[in-house]
Amino acid sequence: MPAMSSEARAIALLALAAFVSASAFRICDPMLPQLAAEFGTTTGQAARAVTAFAVAYGVLQMFFGPVGDRYGKYRVVSVATVGCALGSAGAVMAGSLDMLVFCRALSGAAGAGIVPLSMAWIGDNVPYERRQATLARFLTGTILGMSAGQLAGGLFADTVGWRWAFAALVAGYLVVGVLLHLEVRRQRAAGFAQVDPNAVRQGFVAQARLVLGAPWARVVLATVFIEGLLVFGALAFAPSYLHERFDISLTAAGALVAVYAVGGLIYTVVAGRILKRLGERGLAVAGGLVLGVAFLSYLLGPVWMWSLLASVLAGFGYYLLHATLQTNATQMVPSARGTAVAWFASCLFMGQAAGVALAGAVVDEIGPAALFGGSAVLLPLLGAFFARALKARAAIQQG
């Protein structure tokens, strides 16, 4: 294991990569009305730029897990950032919605190797007693990135134009990619985290069977899929909803939803204390309930200021539930941790993709009330379900 200073530097760089990746995921949300106007389509159709990224991101997780286990997780993360830069560069020059969707899919495919392999690297190199706190610190990169993406998307759309948002992503990916590459070289020179060339390797199918053959892994994967569908399907349309309902700018709407990050950061500060008080089951139940209140606040808030509270609650509630799922994911199948965590991330982002696609249809055909109301009702039920599953698993282990 490296010295703490080396470990801290390595994790900080992974968090920085997660920041840019999460920014890319959410950057299109507040610019959907402008994309719809420029390409002559509906907001729901413009959301294909979000869906394409999420689908590619989700599907390719399954590929990157075994690749990271074979060639080294940190090394693969550094290479993935270059692919993300290429996809974002294509988005800058896209002349049609179809081309933008294609380039977003390319960025999503490459970005699939960043967050899950970072989590798996932490699982490999940080002892379990320090792992949850370390993952919470790593999460700050993802949380701030999602917030920055929401804010930057609206800001660029309202000022110099949406293409400059993707240009900013190109610059971010290139800087992070260089730093990660230098860190890989430092680790290699120190003889740390080298992949054993004589280790027995299982193929993709064998590793997938190993993960999916574990009953607890199937419960965790199904839960995180539904979580992604309900939370991010609604959040993707929150900026557009606030823009249209309260007649505020896209920048303001994106900033209001970006306050989501504040709730996530509050979680990282109090995670240890809340875990000791509530336990994992209590965190799952509380997360679902807080998320339900958040989406009700988006829906029923009489003035735009209510969305500030809604966003903070959404971020806090999401990480109460998701961090519990994430910690369990790192221990689902320790012998194939890279693949297991990759499947976890894949299910999360496939859920997001399905959620955005479903939400687009709901918004176009029924309206946003059904979207936010549905999430408000179903998320508390999901939290209660996972809490019950945790209780059943604990009983089996004790028995």
UniProtKB/TrEMBL annotation:
Keywords: Cell membrane, Membrane, Transmembrane, Transmembrane helix, Transport. It is a multi-pass membrane protein. It is found in: Cell membrane. Residues 10-391 form the Major facilitator superfamily (MFS) profile domain. The chain crosses the membrane at residues 48-67, 74-93, 99-123, 135-156, 162-182, 219-242, 248-270, 282-298, 304-321, 341-363, 369-390. This is Major facilitator protein. GO terms for molecular function: transmembrane transporter activity. It holds the Pfam family MFS_1. The lineage of its organism: Bacteria, Pseudomonadati, Pseudomonadota, Betaproteobacteria, Burkholderiales. The keyword Transmembrane helix applies. Its main location: membrane. The keyword DNA damage does not apply. InterPro entries: MFS (IPR011701), MFS_dom (IPR020846), MFS_trans_sf (IPR036259). CDD domains: MFS_NepI_like (cd17324). Gene3D superfamilies: MFS general substrate transporter like domains (1.20.1250.20). GO terms for cellular component: plasma membrane.
